[in-house]
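Example 4.3 (complexes with small molecules)
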Amino acid sequence: MTIEHDVRNLDLAPGGRLRIEWAERDMPVLRQIRERFEKERPLDGVRISACLHVTTETANLARTLQAGGADVVLTASNPLSTQDDVAASLVTHYEIPVYAIKGEDNDTYYDHLKAALDHKPHITMDDGADLVSELHKNRIELLPDVIGGTEETTTGVIRLRAMAKDGALKFPVIAVNDSMTKHLFDNRYGTGQSTIDGIIRATNILLAGRNVVVGGYGWCSRGIAMRAKGMGANVIVTEIDHLKALEAVMDGFRVMKMIDAAPLGDVFVTSTGDINVIDVHHFEAMKDGAIVANSGHFNVEINIPGLKALSREEPRLIRPFVEQYRLPDGRLINLLADGRLVNLAAAEGHPASVMDMSFANQALGSEYMLSMGKQLENQVYTIPEDVDQEIARLKLEAMGIEIDTLTAEQVQYLNQWQEGT
Ligand code: ADE
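Answer. The structure with adenine bound is encoded below.
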């Protein structure tokens, strides 16, 4: 029997299988969880609809959930991030229904979300909250079956908190993003490296000596700024938050308004979660040949409709993922990956080693949701701190790193208040 699917081409499966195996080698924490899940089957019979980037790392998460007894279906969380060979392998080798095709249009993207919801999930797993949003807007008949959900990313958590604040959220959700072992590593080191990787794969430019403008100084942006600096770029940061701006200054970056950075930048990268961070008046001030990319979840950070309206002709695809827009005076603006997540569209997303921790949180978050969900309110929760600590402990152990433990004397010292100077 062929598993239900809508993927590019099942013939791509053998290549996908090898790449899934390659990623697995760098996911020791998830592997340990999978081995326990195989024995304990904590998710037996649980239907999970997952809306995640379909990558080699996600494939290993799906295998873990399946090992725990879950009945998993997977749909893409972004039209451009799917790795078609991985989607094919999941269907062919792991019997996991997948609805995801790299480059799918918006209608197909939503048809795929609907197919994943037809699975009647007990648990939703989201990256950006599109699945939860679709369920609450158009599929409320599914609500009685849903125990809860998990959410991977900052943008999704912001959306879910807005829903909870409005009283619109109808089941509890674990904000995986808020675990220390997620945002401190995935957002910073994962986004940092994979964003630079995406820009370089798309353009093959030398970053050394270039002015790179980074929009925002949250965990993702600081990773991008740090890695761009490490490649020899002169990094400029733009911010709207005084504290974060001050941190960027003290981390050694130039900080200014986007409109002041616009004529200086050779490369622009946004990762703020907000809309029109690079707007029409910024394009108007940019140098000929400026490169503009986004690494935030949605393709709204760069005003692409505005850029289209400003251009005097249709954009030209000069290389894969590089579209040139010509301004009325002849200057060219190079837009990468249609303003979608450049790290997942033009590269392969975060490396497995960092997704290991993020997806350990997803796996343990779904287990926690299953056991605790009925007692939780319809709010957004963080994973318990001891789970977060345990993931860090397992990661260190897998890296062969041992750390000190407090002596009895040190414990006692920390618990007293009499001793001072
Ligand atoms: N988000 C960022 N990188 C990712 C990856 N490699 N797999 C799944 N989701 C991601």
